[in-house]
Amino acid sequence: MSAIDLSDPATIAFLTEALTAAGVNGLEISQPDGQLRIVVAGKGGARISSTEATPRAPGLAPGSASAVVKAPMAGRFCVEHPAASAAPQKLPRSVSDADIVGFVGVGHILLPLRAGRSGILTRLIAEPGALVGFGDPLFEIELQS
Question: Per CATH, the architecture of 66-143 is what?
Fold first, then answer.
């Protein structure tokens, strides 16, 4: 039996629709390389979290003072949550490793993007609303020494 690709937007959308149609409140799938949790939230849609898909900044090249947050899956890139009523935050701004700095969306599913490193979020690489692919660079974080 082959493993389910937890980073595939079509797989996540299919699982979410199947859960909603069956009246199931949620699902959690664990694999050696990651975990996917889908919680059906009623009218507001589903919430998705994934330990593998939530990007951590990659290892840094020697002498590098910045890290890049990359897209964990293909979808539409959002800097702010679509339901947020607060004014968008401006760059540059300080972030901690656990801060959510944006989202990748497929339909009504939003996957949060964590900074992965503490530092200064200095540059937006992808355009808000753009379609992005797996591994596309989205943000640049200047690391604090």
Answer: Beta Barrel (2.40)
